[in-house]
Amino acid sequence: MEKLASCLPHHGATSSQSFKLSTLHRPTPTPTPGPRSSRPVSTVRCAPSSHAGIAAAAIATAGDTETHRYDDVNGISSSFDLERYMSRNAETVHAALDAALTGLECPALLADSMRYSALGGGKLVRPVLSIACCELVGGRAAAALPVACAAELVHAASLVHDDMPCMDDDALRRGKPSCHAAFGEHAALLAGDALLALAFEHVARESSCHVGAHADRAIRAVAELAAAAGAGGVAAGQVADKASECDVTVSLRLAGLEYIHVHKTARLVEAAAVCGAVVGGGGPGEVERVRRYARRVGLLFQVVDDVLDVTRTSEQLGKTAGKDVAAGKATYPRLMGIDKARAYAGELLALAEAELDGFDAQRAAPLRHLARFVAYREH
């Protein structure tokens, strides 16, 4: 199996890194209501000055080191190794996904296209997030493995469909031909459907086999993932994204852009995190704080993705660069400018980290560093 750690070296904020979140703009703070899973939440808000200062300090000093090891005022050990943490958990998830996709009773074309799409070398950020959030609330990593795999299967399904000619029409994914380019459109369409169904089958089957599993937690996790994949999440975001290509009144408004990315990107990141906290036994308050943290990290991912799309080549990204600009789509750099988009990313990073205050510092360390990994990634 390919070492998943190979996905990570490019995320380190080194002195040669061209993408840096260098400045935090501080507009007048506005109240931050606690979001609920059934309501879209706008997170274009400024962090409180103390948290913004923490983020600014981390951003300013990140270029001085070649690893993601930070001295943090919240008590995180400066020796925490995010790459090792992600690599170890990603290998565990990859092995579990491999097992789940082995021996499928279906035509070889379908099985091969499913494996190709789900085991194609992604960073596995969502499943690692599930595990980290489970551990954050005092759960064991093994309890989160079924929902971690399911989150990645839902994500893989969404990418297969997103790349198809009727959607974004992208022939490249993770540096390789996308599923429809490699196997044909009909196989890709059905592979996406099958991966989505397998996600929920996997949670139900594996949770029932896990020693000490709680059926009510598994049911809550299934409901959370289903909401994130369907009309309350990815599907809604994708429809709005397509509509924005021809509706100038939507494509030129930040509120419309944020709606798209809260649903298309952030909602699934949020669900992965919430599912981990739920199966880990987190209380309602803890789960809601995890939800807010993850939604901001999900938006942060998209803001950074938009910036990279206009500052990186296709070879660096492993997918077609500049497609959104060429298609006239609304992006954060297009609507805000690159500098303000980077500043907004800095605010989201500070807000995400603020949600971790009050949790055990060592348990929260992976999530703090994971947020920074998302902020400083280069592809």
From TrEMBL:
Renumbered residue ranges of the record's region Disordered: 1-42
PROSITE patterns per the UniProt record, alphabetical: POLYPRENYL_SYNTHASE_1, POLYPRENYL_SYNTHASE_2
Record-level Gene Ontology MF annotations: metal ion binding; prenyltransferase activity
The name this protein goes by in its record: Geranylgeranyl diphosphate synthase
InterPro entries, sorted: Isoprenoid_synthase_dom_sf, Polyprenyl_synt, Polyprenyl_synt_CS, Prenyl_diphosphate_synthase
GO cellular component terms listed in the entry, alphabetical order: cytoplasm
Stretches of the chain forming a coiled coil according to its record: none
SUPFAM superfamilies according to UniProt: Terpenoid synthases
UniProt cofactor(s): Mg(2+)
GO BP annotations, alphabetical order: isoprenoid biosynthetic process
Pathway where it operates: Isoprenoid biosynthesis
4Fe-4S is among the record's keywords: no
Keyword annotations: Isoprene biosynthesis, Magnesium, Metal-binding, Transferase
Protein family according to the UniProt entry: Belongs to the FPP/GGPP synthase family.
